[in-house]
Amino acid sequence: MTDLVDAVLDDHRVVGRMLDDVAASGDARNRRELLERAIAELSRHWTAEEQFLYPTVRRVLPGGDELADQRLAEHADGERVMNELQHVDAATPRFDELVTGLVDAVRGHLRTEADMLSRLREACPPEELRELGHGYEQSKKVAPTRPHPLVPGTAPANKIVSTGLGLVDRVRDAITRRNT
How much is the CA Rg of the chain, to the nearest whole Å? Predict the structure, then answer.
């Protein structure tokens, strides 16, 4: 079973590659499709982090409340940008500007979290990290695939709301044939 730190780092590698693909694509239609998949993956990843990673950071790490609050603020900023991107034509300069900003912000977020995850591995018992990793992976299966910037990023509200939004998002994805 993958532990929480490894699960989050694996997601970081996947998200990083997806964002590289978006940034490298020159075709507007292809770029839109790549971005939609990256948004879905980031939405699932951030939901799982909010439910499992940040509550643990708050509890285990010195200064954990501040660390978690900073990362949650980055999530909120990213969700607002992702939400706007869903309504901007991929062939416009505004789309390029938003994508560049999102890619840069997410890369910075991933770098910052890498240090936090290293500290978490040292501070948290391995068995607990394995249990949290299992919960993290399970939560991604029912998490939203679209940004919901107005949804709370902290427990318990996020756990209650996210499952329902995830179901609604997957229905919307199926109806619109959105590849997530």
Answer: 16
